[in-house]
Specification:
12% strand
Length: 129
């Protein structure tokens, strides 16, 4: 009796022949490759921009120096607005914004409070009559 030798290795894989691309398929493939290259370049530029931006000190945008005189003594103050709370920022705006005449509808919020209180007092006086 003779035995048949069986090779269990994967050396006998069947390979399919690749179909030849039609001219339209080649053009499409070329356009896809071109588009991929363009996207890769854009990604490189964005990554480079991000690394350059993060390497700079961005905290300088919110740091301010204030020079003023207090009791005839020149003073200099450096402060970082990014560390301020919203309440502190509102106080700073109210303090540093000049209070114009009361005819200006965009003046500080105190005017709107005054007008509301004056309307309330007017309505109370009309109710008494």
């Amino acid at each position: 009796m003779s035995y048949q030798k069986i090779d269990l290795g994967n050396n006998n894989k069947r390979t399919r022949n690749k179909k030849k691309l039609c001219p339209d398929c080649r053009d499409t493939n070329d356009y896809v490759n071109l588009f991929s290259n363009k996207i890769s370049k854009i990604e490189e530029i964005v990554d480079e921009f991000r690394t350059n931006l993060s390497s700079r000190k961005t905290n300088k945008f919110s740091t301010f120096n204030a020079k003023f005189t207090l009791n005839n003594v020149p003073c200099e103050l450096e402060y970082n607005l990014s560390q301020f709370t919203l309440e502190d920022l509102q106080k700073l705006v109210i303090f540093t914004t000049p209070n114009r005449n009361n005819n200006n509808e965009y003046s500080s919020s105190n005017k709107s409070n005054e007008s509301v209180s004056s309307e309330d007092s007017n309505s109370e006086s009309s109710q008494e009559d």
